[in-house]
Every structure is written in structure tokens, then in C-alpha cells.
Amino acid sequence: MNTHDDEHFDTVALLALGVLPAREAEELAKHVAICADCRLVYASLRLTSDLVGYQEEALGEKFDEVSRFRLKTRVLKAIRSAEAIEPIAASSNGRAATQSPEVAVRRRYLSWGLAFAAIMIAAIDTISNTSLRADNDRLVAVANQQASVAAADATQARELDRRLAELVAPGAKRFGLSRGEIVASSDRMVIALRNLPALPAGKKYQAWTRKRGAKKMTPGALFSPDAAGIAFVDIPYAATSIAAVAVSVEPASGSKAPTSKPTFVRTLT
Amino acid sequence: MARIRERDTLAFEVVYDAYHRLVYGIALKMLGDVMAAEDVTQSIFLKIWNQPDAFSSGNFGAWISRVARNRSLDVLRSRSLRGEGEIPLDIPIDGALDEAVFARIDGDRVRDALRSLPIEQRAPIELGFFGGITHEEIARRTATPLGTVKTRIRAGLRKLRTALEGSTVA
Q1: What distance in Å separates the CA atoms of residue A139 and residue B79, rounded to the nearest whole number?
Q2: Has residue B65 been placed in a domain?
Q3: Which residues are registered as beta bridge partners of B24?
Q4: A20-34, A81-95, A140-154: which has the minimum mean pLDDT?
Q5: Can you give the pLDDT at residue B150?
Q6: CA atoms within 13 A on the CB side of A252
Q7: Domains in chain B, number
Q8: Residues in a beta bridge with A189
């Protein structure tokens, strides 16, 4: 049996939708947490409220392929940056762990006498210096490696920005694909692909074009997707001269004609 | 999520691919700004990567929708004093059955269900969720008595739930 009237449950509905003023919401939330009737009403309506957000799920033109590529690349890059910090932290911890026993040994030996301790300290210092140098070398190597990864990332980002600028140029024509799209400017095209599976060693994706009036496909660039499964492929022809574009999996050295069922074939009409 | 806790980037991508449109769409609707919507989307998915335990159980879509709304409200607040209401994240609820019923919800079903509501119920719900305003402000903007707004929101949410259950079962 309910212990509250309808007006009270109306207010619980406001809490579920998140439209109560902060102080009122805080007080009612405390009550809901301990009142079984209110919790039941709240649970039912909060889930329903949360699902209202689905109304704005961004589809089609509202969130085009290019924007989605760009945002996904940005998010994945941020994730990788977060991961890249870990090796340095691990290495630093390793150094602290190797120093600690040496300090302990040094203290113990000091109690044996000044002269003997001096010899031991000298010896331990030598070992310690060697160990620190090794740690330092390792840290420098990690830092250099990360700097080179960052530089490569920056180059890739600049290249991506350049291509995206071309893709979003006014007047660019777009041809949809199940895994991306082909964007054509006045004198060239770019195939933008996502969710491309990585291929085994010795295999690459190869782009193909069929010129208008031609019966055979012309071999194009070989490419592999990046770690996020994204690939951009340049086609140095105007869309007006091309009847169809395709991509297939081929030997890493490339083929003169497709040797496997194409990943996709898109006619440009 | 268990695989994300184990730092599996492929699992993260699966979650990202499934929910980025939802997060971005909510943020864009609330903020009206593509750059801000992208920032909110990035911050939420970074949070998922860095703190996967923030989601404990239940309907992930509903949870991330709530997080997207609250994060967008934070941005609105930083721009002005607007957007006081927030959906609490920490009231313990037992909705396992509900979560299962709504496990396969999608944008089309929600849009259809919302369209089935009378406009006087639908409008305050949408205004409240995406507008980030209190029920008092909803009453003022729609020139409706406060008590009527409260009643309509609850009645609308109940009807929406029934419509969603129907669409899920169908």
C-alpha cells in the first residue's frame, strides 16, 4: 500500500527526469533511497527518462562520416596517450625498487667501521651509479621512443587534417559505402573507410577503378588500415571519368587484376 | 565493460561505435555547438576508459545517456547559471527486469514512442531533459500551472514507458 499521495509521486517523477532544483532534489533523493514505494516509482521512471536521450541519437547528415572519423580518431588518440604514460611510470617504479636494497646494504656496512665502510660505500656507489646509468639509459630510450611516436602522431594528424580539409571542401560529392564513403572533388577522389579488419601478413587492401567505357578494372593503391581500422585512399582521377571504384584483399605486392571477391564495388552514378 | 577494465582497446572501440552517436546527439542537442558536443563526447569516453567501474550494472545505454546529459549540464552551467536539474547517479535502484526489457532499445523506438504522447506531455519531458531547466522554468516557459506540469511529466513518463514496453515486446 502506498504511503504517499499522487502529488508526492509527481515530484518523484521530476527527480527522475532531473528537473528539480538542486536543493529539493538532494532532499528528495535522500528520502527515495530509504523509501521502498518511492524507490519503485523512481526506478521505473528514471530508466524511462534516461531513454529519452535516444531521441537525439545522431544519425545520417546530422553526424556525417567525416566528422565521425575525425572524432573517433581524436578519442582513440587520447586513449593511446593515456596508455603511453604507463611505461615511464613503470620504469620509475623499477628504479625505486632497485635503489632500496642498496641503501639498506649501505647502512648495514657502515656499522662495521669507518675504513671498511668507506671501501664498501665506494664499491656500492660504483654499482649504484652503474644501475642508475642503466635506468637513466632506459628512461632516455623510452622518452626517445615516445617522442618519435608523438612526432609520427603529429605528422599523421597533419596529414589527416589535410585530407579532411579536402573532404569537406565545398562542392565535394559523396558516395556512401557500408563502411565509409567516397568523396570526390573536382580532380580527385578519396575513399574513406572505417572498421576495416586488419589483414594477415603478406596481404593488403588494394583499390581499383574502372574508367567510363572500360571493361576492366585498373589497379590502384595498396593500403592497410590504421590501428583504429581507418583508412584514407587517394584516387587521382576525377569522379566524372570513373564508372566504378572497388577494394579487394590482395598479396602485399599488389595484383594486376582482382584475385579475391571485392570488399565493396561502388558504381559512381 | 569487463574487457575495457582489462585495457582492451578493441572492446573500447565496440562500445564507442555503439554509443558515440547517442552521446554526441544528446550533447549537440543540449549545447547547440558541434565543438562542445565533440568535447563532451571525448570526455565521456575517456572517463569510460579511465574509470570503467563508474558503470556498475544495468542498462548501459540509459546510463551513458544520463552521463551525457549531466556532463552537458556541467558545460551549460560553466557558460551561465543555467541548468540546475540533474539526474542523480547514486540512488540505489533495483531495476534488473526493466533493464532487460529495455536492453535492445534504439533511437527509432524512442522517437516513435515519444511521438505517441500528447504534445502537452511530450513537450515538458523534452524541455526538461534536453533544456536542462527546472520544472518551475518549464511552467514559466509553457505558461502552464506548476501542478499541471508535474502531473503531465509523470503521466507522460508512464505513458512513454508503456509505449516503449509495447515496442520492445512487438
Answers
A1: 42
A2: yes
A3: none
A4: A81-95
A5: 95
A6: 7
A7: 2
A8: A184, A235
Q: How far apart are CA B1 and CA B47, in angstroms?
A: 13
Neighbours of A254 (CB within 10 A): 12
Cell numbers describing residue A47: 530508466
pLDDT for position B49 = 92
Q: Are B161 and B147 in contact (CB under 8 A)?
A: no
Residues B89 and B121 in one domain: no
Q: Which of B22, B33, B13 is nearest to A194 (CA)?
A: B13
d(CA B116, CA B122): 9
User: Please, what sign has the CA dihedral across residues B12, B27, A38, B167?
Assistant: negative
CATH number at residue B133: 1.10.10.10
- Which SS3 state, helix, strand or coil, does residue A250 take? strand
Residue B165 and residue B143 share a domain: yes
* Cα distance from N-terminal residue to C-terminal residue, chain B: 29
Q: With a cut of 0.90, is the ipTM above it?
A: no
Alpha-carbon distance A49 to B158, whole Å? Answer: 10
Percent of chain A exceeding pLDDT 90 equals: 14
Q: Which of residues 74-133 of B touch A (CB under 8 A)?
A: 84-88, 91-95, 98-99, 102, 105-107, 109-111, 114, 125-126, 128-130, 133
DSSP 8-state code for residue A253: T
Residue of A nearest to B152 (CA): A10
* Residue type at position A95: R
Domain of B40, CATH number, reads: 1.10.1740.10
Walk across the sheet containing A173-177 and list its strands: A173-177, A180-184, A189-193, A231-235
A13 to A34, B26, B125: CA distances (angstroms): 17, 21, 10
- Are the C-beta atoms of A222 and A172 separated by less than 8 Å? no
Q: By CA distance, what is A31's nearest residue in B?
A: B91
